[in-house]
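Hi D.,

Good news: the full-assembly prediction came through. Inputs first.
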Amino acid sequence: MPLHNADIAAIFGEIADLLEIEDANPFRIRAYRRAAQVLGEFGRDLRQMLADGEDLTALPGIGNDLTAKIREIVVTGHCAQLDRLHGELPPAIAELLHIPGLGPKRVRALWHDLDVQTTEQLCRAARDGRIRVLPGFGEKTERRILEAAEVHLARERRFKLATAAQYAEGMVAYLRRVEGVERVEVAGSFRRMRETVGDLDILVIAAAGNAVTEAFVTYDEVREVLAQGNTRASVVLRCGLQVDLRVVAPESYGAALCYFTGSRAHNVALRRGAIAVGLKLNEYGVFRGDQRIAGETEESVYRVLGLAWIPPELREDRGEIEAARRGRLPHLVRREDLRGDLHAHTRATDGHNSLREMALAARDAGLEYLAITEHSRRLAMAHGLDAAGLARQIDEIERLNETLTGIRMLKGIEVDILEDGSLDLPDAILARLDVVVGAVHSRFDLPRTRQTERILRAMESRHFTLLAHPTGRVLDERDPYDVDMSRVIRRARERGCALELNAHPTRLDLLDTWCMAARDEGVPVAINSDAHSVRDFDNLRFGVGQARRGWLEAKDVLNTRPLAVLLAWLKC
DNA sequence: GCCGTTTTCGGCCCGACTGTTTTCAGTCG
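Then the structure:
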């Protein structure tokens, strides 16, 4: 049975939910949640680690008890603790906790007093007016619960980073024009460059909070006002995106920015660190007793805690605080470090622009080289090239290079990795290319072993340069295929191949945790646009954001290398 | 359930908003 780190994380997450409903020790609940987070993001295979006799208690938040439970889950496929909870509580009740407005106390009350066990039963109880009569509930609460439950049934929606960026930019521009507003910044997961965001957190410095929250809730894209006070307000835009606004004073701006950037796990760890040195940290500043000793800037907050300023993309409580304490934070790759792009298409297949137009757009985007990597013949719907078609493009690129200045075009292909792991074009034509990008575009459903062997075999080709969008996931559309990425990364190191971090907003694949694993193995990562039009080079910034979340430095990224260095790497 | 420059026991982050129980519990971020 396939059992991944995410499966174990999900079990611990459900245990936390159910324990919460049982009103268990909140710190025990927190321990399970923390373990779920750590395991869910962990880049190596827990099964393998156990098989190798490695000590899991070295992982943060994992002690003897949880190690034993992980072992139990790996060996038996079950967790007795979770089975016990399932015996005591209705099977689907944890689901109710994920409805906004419902916490453990209310879920317990609804279950005990009304026998509500599912979201559907919750909706019925609300429509029948049975909830409002419960102690602690009222009409308004009942209505809000019904609305939230209906939204939940229609499924929670997260927005892709690039989509959220469009709404964020409009809202920020609007708020900057409001009288008395000095500064506006988007915090939250958006600032941390997460691949999707659930809502936007906007931070404002302004003299009079009332005027700002009033302007905020009357923004013309607002569909619904969820809350409105002097210092904070929440709305839902017509597109369904929730936006939270906080108004802060200048002396608290850094502390508030830090606080609302999160992540929650990072904040908790920071607070713990503050307490350890006799300080108190909140969104207004860092305090010794009643005296504020920092808070105007983020740097000041981190400094008094004995830490270097931590880039937002790292703030996930994955070791960044310890690194900041020791002065060992990575010098994260920046967009301007990228000198080239190794994955792009033209009109020859499914792109929208000519070779020359793509070249000039890449140069305008500050790049020194661009590999054209059309689809291969197997991808018929994209008009994939056969050997003859590719040969014509090779000639065309060579001719174009003679006329271009400031940009060098590289000859490439995005060749399909067929089901048996062979490549979709013969060696003879691949040998004429600078860059061979291998990609899986079919049979996403292969079992883990076969999918893994398929990719490993493709990497055996001496022409293979890098693996495109390594997990195949498409946000909101397709889950990653089942592949042992640890083995892929190890083989990439042995074969001298690279992995792509596809910067397209719907992919952002390689995932951040695998970026870390690649870095640890010394496998270079190429941040590629997969551009299909001249506008798509802008997407590189999202790829860089993801790379930064994966702790990558410029030296870890293949296409930060100057052309000559890259060409030498490609030849060896 | 985890963890240790204050600890192998006793801690474990903090404030705003909402609705309702008129002094606060529940939820959220």
